[in-house]
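#struct-help
A.M.: can someone run this one for me? Single chain, 125 residues.
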Amino acid sequence: MLKNYGKIAISIIFISMFLLILGIKYVLGQDLVIMNLLAFAAFSIVIGVLSGSLLLYKLQKAFYIFTIGLIIGFFEMYRSFIAGPQEFGDLAGILSLFIFTAFGFVIGLFVEAIFYLLRKNEQKD
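D.P.: on it. Structure tokens below:
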């Protein structure tokens, strides 16, 4: 399944675009403008390309950690939208999505680097 990195990347692009539009339009109740859609498309494409490249280079652990970070980010975004849309809930929601996604990516790369170094040291001995 993880060999179809192109299909997985495209599906992640469409799913993240759908979840962003759903969150802003229906959960938050904001009207969407062209700049919002362009920003959502850019974010979704970046997320899809990152996930596809992780699978292309056979970094499955990093892909799973990145995906978990993305799921947590969307969950926190929706939670912030529901909890406090009058205050800074919209800004906090989008920022939490970005932060958890970035943390998932960085932590995934650290885990892969640690496993790479451990395998390299085992081969020396």
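A.M.: thanks! The mean pLDDT is 91.
D.P.: also worth noting: Helices lie at 5-27, 34-56, 60-83, 89-124.
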